[in-house]
Amino acid sequence: MEITIDARGLSCPTPQQMTIKAIRTTKPDTTIIVLTDEAGARDSVIRTARALRLPYRSERSADEYKTYIFKEELWTEKR
Fold first, then answer.
1. Which of 1, 63, 65, 76 registers the highest number of CB atoms within 10 A of its CB?
2. Number of domains present in the structure of the chain
3. Rounded mean pLDDT of 15-32?
4. Is residue 14 part of a domain?
5. Directed axis angle between helix 14-25 and helix 39-51, to 10°?
6. How far apart are the C-alpha atoms of 76 and 52, rounded to whole Å?
């Protein structure tokens, strides 16, 4: 399954908060695609994936960043 978060035009911490909510509420084996148009927002999304130990990759096109976060079957949030 795949979901897309359109965080273009939003400043921090909103893209990061939207990403955390998606990670917590989606089912395992979901790819979360986060669209941002600022490097700072992209970086905060990447830091979130790293902190939660989720695999990710990021791409840049002419006017946006696309970060793919892969919520795996065995992932559980450590509290």
1. 65
2. 1
3. 95
4. yes
5. 30
6. 9
